[in-house]
């Protein structure tokens, strides 16, 4: 069920091969045993195709083509089996970037550093060396079932520095044949009568040193019905059993695949952490998206900051796989508050502020998430909350919404020195009204580390600390 | 500006010969279209019909016969060659012949294009040629019609003879393995249903090929790369192609369907395309070769199914038929350019030469035929043994009408209704 990528490390290029494989067979019988036999035989045929000389891997957006089973021969001729994997990059043309025209050199260099993924397509060479025998047409007349689909093969291997194409492609091919085995298992395991579910591989990025892991799930089966499989995986990989790693929402998002919804993910990752004597940094865990003023064609400038902070929290719960619910809109948030009786019906559609207590109520109502409220009567007291906050990020790891007498913000982490008591806060500011440009957001401090003086020393604050449930 | 036809000199001689016949002679013009100009490689007259049907009696032309001839001929043309249009040798006023030629051109194009399983491209030429030769004055009148526009009118075109038109043409070829498996619908497993299902399956395959990657002599060439050296005369220019394909991703919910059986086509075919030497581009070579691959498989399946239709006997649970092999025959004086025929393994070479004579009016010796590109189909017992439920395995050659004229007549009868419909639309 699982392929752990043993060569994980931060360096090295990831090779990712994708390509549908045609899966077709004529099931002569409805007898389960015979059907299994035919399906297994079809998988065997695919295995032998992948291992055959016809198997071809094409590096996307490049002229590079490799025949892994023909002595790793490749075209163009500059590429030999001993070429290093990272040297493939120079053959890849980033058309889209060129088409975009004028772009700052800064951006370009950043892009290429992120492009440590080489995408490949799996194809089959249909031509052979002739002459060969002319075709045979055969007809079988028998009432039965016909099975026809494509298998979405998707494998990754992480190459090590100085690894040659020959070695890496050998491992890639092993991964391919292994994935077909997994697909066969999943297909047979989830077959009911003549209903068949397409096996679907997904990649998950586990904390180091485990790295990328590929799991095959039956398509269409909801996460709620796959808990047994997840338990097995957690055991097998010795993962804590109170944190979801293998829900579909946890699937790894490759750096070269832009998020389609347009929201920025984890903008704090580009920041440099502050260094405090004896201090440590405690951060939000997992992935959230940055919600701020003026998004979604919604003019909430001046009143929507707490809504946006709440949205950021909701996005965290969704992307960690705790809830399937989409991030709620302003109106949905207001409706939830009306539903629980916190606000009158006239509140829905208004432009009124909400505070930490409302955020807590909405999280409970819409997501079933409970939250702790921390109250400080003066902003100056926040400097002494280091222990509570670090504990929160260690055990819960969720973003914190902070509001009260003044503006609302999101706290994404703290840097805290237990000995000196020095503290810094990682703040995500929902009042930003500009474009989704992580560089601007970091440079101008819309996401940044702030000192204790960031808080209004005399105003009161309420912090909403969302608690995650201990599930997998 | 009208289109420009560069015509092989031998065609002039052939047409002159037709001028000596009694009564009007019709026939087909064969060659290659390109966006700049057209190359006419050869011409062939419509074969004589033994008995004339009632419709064809008298002076009027036997349009069904002409179009059926065109259909059969287009099956014998490898990639890069096609029926460009029709000619008529008739002692009539040129302007009176226009209507007749127009009807013929449209009918021929409609029938041939209905058999195509590949999708036309934007840069395909849609003009067909209609040539009128006056046997007395030996004057030629060349016109074209846009066959994609049912209202199109005749446009004058340039007709120019030249020697060695295709002496330095390029040949691109490959040996392609075919592996098709298609379901037959529940309760409908007759030969006609098999035909429909196979066509659907072939269309999917055609689409796969179309989207596939083509390598020429082991290299991925940019679309507008010129296949060089084409201008050198008498140097044989041959390229080997490789095709890399991938199925289309399907996110279907109906993974399993009920079926009445299945049909498969497995084996290898030799595919070939010829390219004119006027700055031939890699993209064109790829397009013509891929189309030939689809056509040659479709044609063989078609020939076999037509045979089965006329000689159907008891149906077994599982039957295997060897598809005919492709045989090539060089067109005299036309450099590397060949036409082809399909030969069942129980047929002799004389049957091939007979067909070449009848369909293309070519006098060919058996030794001229190139039979080496494909080896006879072999029924693989191993494959059959893998199917545990199969009771009857039969490798058979269908019983055939060996006299081609009879076969063509049968096909004409089958098609007559459809063809006359086309005429009604065209008039």
UniProtKB/TrEMBL annotation, chain A:
Single GO MF annotation: deUFMylase activity
Domain UFSP2 second: from-to ranges: 40-259
An example Gene Ontology CC term for this record: nucleus
Protein name: Ufm1-specific protease 2
Family, as annotated: Belongs to the peptidase C78 family.
InterPro entries: UFSP1/2_DUB_cat (IPR012462), UFSP2-like_2nd (IPR049387)
Keywords: Hydrolase, Protease, Thiol protease, Ubl conjugation pathway
The keyword Hydrolase appears for this protein: yes
Boundaries of every UFSP1/2/DUB catalytic domain copy: 280-464
GO BP, sorted A to Z: proteolysis
Keyword Protease included in the entry's annotation: yes
Pfam family, any one: UfSP2_N
From TrEMBL, chain B:
InterPro entries: ODR-4-like
Keyword Translocase: no
Gene Ontology biological process terms from the UniProt entry: intracellular protein localization
Keyword Transmembrane helix part of the UniProt annotation: yes
One term under GO cellular component: membrane
Keywords assigned: Membrane, Transmembrane, Transmembrane helix
TM regions (residue ranges): 403-424
Domain of life: Eukaryota
Places the protein is found: Membrane
Described purpose of this protein according to its UniProt entry: May play a role in the trafficking of a subset of G-protein coupled receptors.
Name this polypeptide is given: Protein odr-4 homolog
Organism: Zoarces viviparus
Lineage: Eukaryota, Metazoa, Chordata, Craniata, Vertebrata
